[in-house]
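Colleagues,

Please find the record for the two-part complex below.
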Amino acid sequence: MASKISSREVVIVSGIRTPMGKMGGCFDGMHAVDLGMHALRELLARSPLTRDDIDSVIVGNVIQPSEATNISRVISLQAGIPRRVPAHTVHRNCASGMQAVTDAAEKILAGRADVVVAGGVESMTHAPLLFHDRFRAAMAKLQRARSVQQRAKAVLGVVKAPWKPRVALMEGLTDPVANLNMGQTAEILAREFSISRKAQDEFSLQSHQRAAKSWQDEWFNDEVMHLFAPPRFTPVHRDEGVRSEQSMEALARLRPAFEKPLGTVTAGNSSQITDGAAMLLLSHREKAESEGWPILGYLHDWAYTGCDPARMGLGPVFASNTLLSRYGLSAGDMARVEINEAFAAQVLACLKAMDSKQFSVKQFGGKSAIGAPDMETLNVHGGAIAMGHPVGMTGARMVLTTLRQLKHDTGGGLGLATLCIGGGQGGAVLLGSEPWKS
Amino acid sequence: MEVVTLIREGSVARLNFSRSDKPVNVLDEFCMEQLEAHLELLEKDSPEVLILESGLPGCFIAGADLTLIQSVKDSEVATRLAERGQAVCRRIELLSTVSIAVVDGACMGGGLELAMGCDYIVAVHGKKTSIGLPEIKIGIHPGFGGCVRLPKRIGWPKAIEMIMTGRPVDAKRAKRIGLVQLTCYPEQVEGAINHFAGRGKADRKKVNPWWFHLWPIRKFFFYKVREKALARFKHLDIEEAYPSVPGAIDLLEDIFGMSDGLAYEREAESLGKFAVTPTCKNLIRVFFLGESLKKQEMVKKGKPAARELQRTSVYGAGAMGSGIAWVATRSGEVDIHDLSEDALGHGLRNLSQLAKRNPERFQKIRPAVGNSGLASADVVIEAVLENIDIKKQLWAGIESEVRKDTLLLTNTSSLSVSDQQADLKHPGRLAGLHFFNPAPKMPLVEVVAGSKSTKKSVQTVAALAAGWGKYPVIVSDTPGFLVNRCLMPFMSAALRLLESGQKLEHIDGALKNFGMPMGAIELADRVGLDICHHVGAHLSESFGARMGMPAWFDQMVEDGLLGIKSGEGFYLYEDEKRKGINESLSNYLVGQKSTEREFDANLSADQGQVMTDEEVVNRALVPMLIEALTCLSEGVVDSAEHLDAAMVYGIGFPPFRGGLLNHFSGYEEQKLKDIITSLGMDVPENLEVLYE
């Protein structure tokens, strides 16, 4: 429990995110740095703090563009944060955004900082194309070549080297240890937990319907800022991927994306590849109260766990269990739960695992199922299938959206935000809208 | 007073230019005399190395003495002056010494020509290091040998460009084009000198592009240069308006291939000719007018406070708001607010061209839907709808969010600044800052003090505007302020000429020929007939019928002929380009003869007769003159100098005529009075201002 480590209670003062744009879509003209810079500037403009109050900036980012090394620092300077404020970038695959938030919390709890900006950014559109390593080696030889003979030989070497580009995006979504891409791990879970194509499509339809309704009801209006994307600067507010007219028929028409022809995971029941940024301001309760800052909510605790990379989709089960069992809590005690919708099959598999006594016995030595969240408290405003999963951003976005639900929807209570992590990990954060009552 | 000192240190001699009476070094009489004396000593006892340097920070030598050039009346005398300058440069060139010019700061005109007499030029990196030949901007051309030496150093094509545009280059670019041989940082100057000291005299043979030596291609090249240079002045008689433009091109074309001696002679003679033209005098006058605005007392006093203002919030993302936001990025970050996201998108799109050229500046702009970020604003500028209730409501809302010392500025063109102060808690910090469209391009801004504006606020605003590169004119809070108020009678008179039967092309053509940037009627289209009507109505409430638009004009507005914005007005427009005259005009003008006009009696006499260009111009400009003089006597603006500066920089009165008041002062007093009375107007009491 937070108060066992330190007397401080971590609070989130405020948060903002950009809309999520589809790959090659409305944010095609913006890079990850731009998305992060705009989000950070907006966060500061809407918060009562000044730039001088900030002690540190931590940003999660997966693709890490080579032209913006330590993207957190680049974003921080471009957003006008004073030079003396240090900044660094973190990476835990799909949980990079969450990692930034929990690292910020850790700093605050350890007394190393009072105010930290934590967020996540990703531009999957701008994931680069790379040359094969043999091509790089051939070019390096060419650069070293001195005599005419050496140069001729080296040029020939370059011509003979493989020219076909590597797609960094695809490589990034493939686990090198298990030798499976993320979609394939979801297929494994779909088979092992008997999750039908139909069930996956139904869940996806629900995600779209919930997201569309929430946008229509203006629930996201304060969470999401307006972006004006070059070159036309048309205003963007709504998440680009949400389809209010999504239907089972449309979903059924799609072919399996990762295992043809017998697979069940399609583009329609997977998270969308998108661009976006989310930024949050963290501090501790004493500081916030003495400065008169508003408090959006409390970050009580968190956990990261490891699991089988081939079944990485079950990460949330392990992480939530580790986290909640510390307090004798279960998913049923949460007023709201967010499980990142990497794939419908994966979320549904998690729910089945959480509801399974056998799973609990085998994995945790438990006596009964650890308990799954109710569909009425889970991803109530839609999820990544409808809105998108910019991999570095999502973790931070989930913390923000869960806190807002506790504040605006449920009138209090506890919230759980958890996601599966490529490479076989899970991350979970325990949130609340009030201070901890032990 | 020593303005150039000769210092000897062993075999090294330095000519140090420095003075205490001016902030910059100029090649005035003092300087030239002393320089010539020092050169005699140097010629008798030549050191191994000669260094030309400046003791004034931020300035090498800023050029020749403008007041001297302005006062020269005889072309022979001007030619002698040029020859004198050429001689000095030549004498440095002929010394057996290795000469090095160390340029740290402004090196313009004669200063560059002097530096080019040296073997080597070293440019020191710095914000103020600016090297160029701006003489074309004051109606002459380089006359101290620059036309001969510059092409030898950087090649003819680049030299022609530098001389004809007058644009300076910084240290980096100067090195790239070969104008300077080395760039260095201030700490490296001694090292740079040593670098060249051992090299010996320079052998400068600039290689021109191969095609420049072929006569037909060169002829075509000069043809293109003329075409480009004269394109800007299509409607003017260029020989009358800016004679040194074609004159400089002719000079440069002649010089190519001439021996040095003849080339210098030709250059000096040409300078003599242009230095005594009225255009030269007037352009120098206009330069001083601009300086009088930029360096006025109020601006100087406001500078320290203005420097602290770094964050600006602009309200209203329309054409004006987005332009103002761009201007404000010069001093720091800018938030641009609008209630409508589409308006914000549109406003940002307006700036796309500027954004492409300068992406770092564009990045400073944050679009905000709503009110966020006001707590850290140092300045708030509003450019929202011209409606007093909307503005008052806006200020009330903003005042509760900003600091009590945050400057609040209104871009209003027709509402009272004092009215906007009425309900504020801290009214002293609200003032008017009126930009002209498009804000990034138009140099003038009107600074308006409301009845409660503190002097400090007004000073700070004026200094802020000057810091943004604008020319601030401080005016009183009266309807139309200064510029619009003087424009209305001008426009109104032109419309009455149209009404009385003069042709549209003739009226606008005569005005453009005179030098106005556009005709009065095209101006109406550009501003928007609805706005002209609105402003006219507003001003005639306070100032009488001379401000108002005729009834048929109002009919055009009612029928939706609004000018550029609606695609048709007096002219027809497609994609904002003029496509011809609107034929339906005859519906409005035929038989429209109001009997309530002041000078109707005179017009009916001229009905049907085509006026001369001069008559048309006087009909339109005399009302402007009278209104301007009235503004002066009413204290709308505090000096005739500032008034004329506003006419040039705000209305676009042709600079080569030196300003509105300057132009009319060319008429003999009685003759002018006769013209005024013949137009049915009253001679203003302060007409003698023109003749002071």
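The two ends of chain B are 33 Å apart (CA to CA).

Comments are welcome before we finalize the supplementary table.
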